[in-house]
Amino acid sequence: MRHPTFRSIAYSRLPDLVRQEIPDPLEQQEVLKLIDRRSANDAYSAVWIRAGDINVTMRLRDWRPNGEVIAPLSLRQDIAKEVTQELAHYSD
Length: 92
Description:
By secondary structure, the protein is mostly helical. The chain has helices spanning about 15-20, 25-35, 55-65, 75-90; strands at about 5-10, 45. α1 (about 15-20) runs antiparallel to α2. The longest helix is centred in the C-terminal third of the chain and has 18 residues, at about 75-90.
């Protein structure tokens, strides 16, 4: 595991974790769809973060080429926006 705050989680446990930890039914549904489209053979981690915690955000940025944020959707969308902006620097 990359850091002690990140714990491995089995793919089969993800849907239960989503239902338990994401109170918004629409966000639950979207996250469950994302999980369904991912491979059970990939490695998954769970981490508790404080919203806006720059330390976690920076760590995720460092790992970005080798990982994906699935939830929360707000963080996923922020990272997707950053990636799009970053790609613009390399597009001619």
